[in-house]
From TrEMBL:
Enzyme kind, highest EC tier: ligase
Name of this chain's protein: asparagine synthase (glutamine-hydrolyzing)
Keyword Zinc annotated: no
Domain of life: Bacteria
Record-level Gene Ontology MF annotations: asparagine synthase (glutamine-hydrolyzing) activity; ATP binding
Residues the record marks as active site: 2
Pathway where this protein functions: Amino-acid biosynthesis; L-asparagine biosynthesis; L-asparagine from L-aspartate (L-Gln route): step 1/1
Annotated source species: Sulfurifustis variabilis
Coiled-coil ranges (or none): none
Family, similarity comment: Belongs to the asparagine synthetase family.
Reactions performed catalytically: L-aspartate + L-glutamine + ATP + H2O = L-asparagine + L-glutamate + AMP + diphosphate + H(+)
E.C. number: 6.3.5.4
Amino acid sequence: MCGIAAIVGRELTPAHPGIEAMVAALAHRGPDADGIARLDGCHLGHARLSILDLAGGAQPMTYAGRYWITFNGEIYNHAELRDELIRLGHRFATRSDTEVILAAYAQWGEACLDRLRGMWAFAIWDARERALFASRDLFGEKPLYYGQTPEGTLLFASEIKSLLASGALTPRLDRSAVDAFLALGYVPPHRTIYTEIRTLPPGHWMTWRDGRARVVRYWRPGLAPEPMDIGEAAEALRARVDVAVRRQMTADVPVGAFLSGGHDSSTIVALMGQHSTRPVQTFSVGFGRWIDERPYARAVAKQYGTEHHEVDLGAPDVGALLERMARVYDEPFMDASHIPTFLIAEFARRRVKVVLTGDGADELFGGYAWYPLIAAAAAVPGSLLAWLVLRSASRMIGDRVAALVLYSRALGLAARTADTWQRYVRYRLVFGDAERRALWAGEAPATEDWLPRAYYRQDGRNLGFDAALYFDLAAFLPGDILVKVDRAAMAHGLETRAPFLDRDVVELALRLPAALKVSGRKTKIAFKRAFADLWPPALAARGKQGFAGPHERWLERPDVAALERRVCRPDSALSRLLPGIAVDAGRTSQQRWNLLTLGLWLESRARA
């Protein structure tokens, strides 16, 4: 995994400045080496984190003297593809997956993407045609941003800070994107916080030729349920995840795993143990008396004989970390679990370069605590909704208060509309429409569909509960979860891999009927049938905790309270942007955290 950069233009000369600064800004992503190729019409840059073919995998890399690539990611089936390409007459000078991408593109063009099993963001320059081809993986595990100068020069990079380091772009704040952040807590994955900088969305490719760009969606997480019994589903799922874990353990450096003590990461660790000749290194984190899953993680580590490492963060320096996160993420980002993710990545990087994670399982298999009620509301006629509320609440008296609040809110929203997609989007909002209008105080951005249904809703149909899953697969997973993990880990030069997002696993999950994901109060039904035998008894019986930072408690800390007062002052950047912030509206802790992270990001932008 690495950092990549590119500059493309019809009038680009070898002396054109910018690529060095762009690569330097990505040094944290690739601390092992860097490289630059200055070609006629294209400059490519690369900051390398050496994982495969440590001696021969340097980039930018060329193939047949015609194609040049800068690549971030891993192609887990590169050995099989290499064998196929050799049979087709291709010859290879390295063992790297990078060269396999080049040969695959030379052989199949953009159709090569359907053959790749991995995570990627890359740009390939065709020196003969003077054309660029860029692509990003299915869910956007690897980032790719771009912008174009008034003169028509195109710039690509793994992070926004690299584009800005070029000195060629002067971005303006996109007020509509700010409104989207206020609503969701993250910038939707089809756009950025700036008007002049775009992201190549997940599952898309892009071509550039003669100053003209074309962007095409080659894959979407389309749900297509098929009749399937639970035994058949569990057997197929177990087999595909096992293959994905085996593939993703391939590396020429040590590979470990994040182990939270939950079902997802524990499944990954258990399967890793079956494919490793030495103890797997596992890493866990706790927050003392606030949130501590380490006892569950220890049980898994003991059962599988891992080399287990854990750290108790207790009460970390949250104020200083929040200010640092504003710089790490380049855009406002409110998910409080970015702090523990950042810290455990720093901890793990002392021992390994690669970790496997459990990311994606909840979105694919129906694991979130609020899914049962969303599914129930989707299946019950509106006339029976009040009965369902009372019946569900009565069954949950013994559950945690936080779960009651979530379920109660979801049902209240369900009463407002019969459309599951609209209901679910409303449920996921941090600030509702009226609340955001109050914050803008009459200065709201021009009306714009900041969450276009054509992108975030499958075929515009009401799919029942699957509509909620589609939204999380298209928006929340790539916009929040994967951004969080990539930036937090790569800030320390740590590669993360997500076996549940292997394409073969994903396409099976998309075929599972909703009833094998969520039914009644049960979640991840097929998933648990497939993997429960791998878990210690205490883990098998526990509910979902989630890898989160206790932001409600953190807001009570003196250092965080001081930051909140600072960003909300009448003369602050946040108050100038949102004049209505001064009105005391009885905001929730989640809303306060949203505004705090936005305010800190605005301050960091002003200082940059």
